[in-house]
Write a structure and sequence with these properties.
This protein has eleven helices and nine strands.
């Protein structure tokens, strides 16, 4: 089916067919990443601005590389040396970028809803690279893409997301996608970080770690989002680790073939032991690689690329 969306703002608004379409396009672009020359001319002549107004490493680099592999020109916005430090509004900053003839903006912002706001005042596509504690759609897409690579269909698969769910935009995007894909999702952590109302998202809520992990086929660890918490939601990191940190003993409760995931950055020794983060069941670095392919797909489709004509090696 033709891709009809100009922006990518949330996974909540995407249909299952649209999620699968992005995954298929990403799979085609992942083949490009395996070549000696990792570049196709799909977005040649386009200029993409990475407007990151919140710290980022993986996501910013991933969008940067994705755009360059598509042959687009990339400009990364440096908030610390920009007019935003002088009080310029987000709207004025973005409209100036559009007036400078950018073709697309990738936005990360601490305020939930900021990508939606820009999509209503700009004429160019806006891609949400994370807005507050709301959503992180490309992370949810790359996470589910990675799960599908390992498990095939996610229908009926048991997926556990463990950690700071309340303040996690990653958790929200993943739940929206996973529920649409038919997975059985359980959110686990202390009651202060995993309140019962999160069942409204379509997932189960549990504070019983052993019961939740029993036979799970995927476990995704989330770090504690200190920067979004106005106060402490548990006595100490040590106590959190002693109750909910993933170690070898607790990992043994999982399905023997389970995969371990983390969107990063990892706080080693807090939510997960290093031996597990680097172990044979970890797909954390695969997530990073898949992030490039997924973001290539998103940029390509939202720029107007035909989903059935992803560039082949003969066109490169």
């Amino acid at each position: 089916m033709p891709w009809t969306r100009k922006h990518l703002l949330t996974l909540e608004e995407l249909s299952l067919a649209e999620i699968q379409q992005i995954h298929r396009t990403a799979a085609a672009f992942k083949k490009v990443l395996g070549r000696t020359v990792k570049k196709v001319p799909a977005l040649r002549g386009k200029t993409i601005v990475n407007l990151f107004l919140e710290p980022s490493t993986r996501t910013r680099l991933s969008f940067d590389m994705a755009a360059k592999f598509l042959s687009a020109e990339v400009i990364s916005f440096d908030a610390a040396s920009s007019s935003t430090t002088k009080g310029e509004t987000l709207r004025d900053t973005a409209q100036n970028i559009q007036a400078l003839k950018a073709d697309m903006i990738v936005l990360r912002h601490a305020c939930s809803g900021s990508p939606l706001y820009l999509s209503r005042v700009l004429d160019i596509p806006v891609i949400n690279a994370g807005d507050g504690a709301h959503e992180h759609p490309t992370q949810g897409l790359l996470d589910t893409f990675t799960m599908v690579e390992h498990l095939g269909s996610l229908k009926g698969r048991k997926v556990v997301i463990l950690g700071d769910i309340l303040f996690s935009r990653v958790a929200r995007s993943n739940v929206h996608a996973l529920v649409k894909m038919g997975a059985a999702v359980t959110l686990v952590g202390p009651s202060t970080l995993v309140p019962e109302w999160l069942t409204d998202l379509g997932a189960k809520v549990s504070h019983d770690l052993r019961g939740a992990l029993a036979d799970a086929e995927v476990v995704m660890l989330l770090r504690i989002q200190h920067e979004r918490q106005g106060s402490s939601h548990f006595p100490s990191l040590g106590e959190y680790t002693s109750m909910f940190g993933l170690n070898k003993t607790r990992a043994s409760w999982l399905n023997p073939k389970a995969i371990i995931m983390h969107p990063g950055p990892i706080n080693r020794g807090v939510e997960i032991d290093s031996d597990l983060a680097d172990g044979e069941h970890s797909v954390i670095l695969e997530q990073v690689t898949n992030g490039i392919a997924v973001r290539m797909a998103v940029l390509y489709l939202c720029a107007g690329g035909a989903p059935e004509s992803v560039w082949s090696g003969d066109n490169a």
